[in-house]
Amino acid sequence: MSDYLPPPAPPRSALTLRLWLAGFGLVFNSVAGWLALRADLTWLGILLLLLAVVCLVDFGWVVHRKRRGDPG
């Protein structure tokens, strides 16, 4: 018998997962915030749109880090 082990699979990027989550959060919070404002739930709409801005900033930061070549 051979003691050969196949090479391990390359690790998945945590930054890519964070990019996907930020993108989902951006779309979800933007649409939900707009719908809340249309339903006259002003405080909820503003809160959701603020969360969308946070997701947008996070998305931009992750793209910056990936372009810079950070591992992960």
UniProtKB/TrEMBL annotation:
Pfam families, sorted: DUF6343
Keyword Transmembrane helix: yes
Highest taxon in the source lineage: Bacteria
Bilayer-crossing regions: 19-37, 43-63
Keyword annotations from UniProtKB, A to Z: Membrane, Transmembrane, Transmembrane helix
Official protein name in the record: PEP-CTERM protein-sorting domain-containing protein
Species, as recorded: Lentzea albida
